[in-house]
Amino acid sequence: MKASYFSILIAAIKAAKGVDTFKGNSPFTVFVSTDETFAELQASTIDAVLKNILKLNKISNLEM
User: What is the pTM of this model?
Assistant: First the structure.
């Protein structure tokens, strides 16, 4: 699948400052939903989640 299908996930990883975690040869398997899954959410709901860095870190286990 193209990265464009995961723009919400990518935005969340960037917001949580987790990009470096996924670089390189790390043993990660990530199961995620595509943006289509979030289509029924209002843009304001997604924006609110992306702005809540503490919650993003807890969700993604990227607490640093």
Answer: 0.66
DSSP code of residue 52? -
Which tokens sit at 1?
A: 């699948």
DSSP class per residue in 14-46: HHTT-GGGGSSS---------GGGGTTS-HHHH
Give the model's confidence band at 6: pLDDT under 50 very low, under 70 low, under 90 confident, else very high: confident
Cα torsion at 6, 11, 29, 54 (round to 10°)?
-140
The three-state secondary structure class of 62 is: coil
Report the run of H or E that residue 1 belongs to, with start and end: none
Q: How many helices (H) and strands (E) does the chain have?
A: 3, 0
Q: Phi first, then psi: what are they for 27, rounded to 5°?
A: -85, 65
Rounded to the nearest angstrom, the gap between the alpha carbon of residue 43 and the centroid of all alpha carbons in its chain is: 15
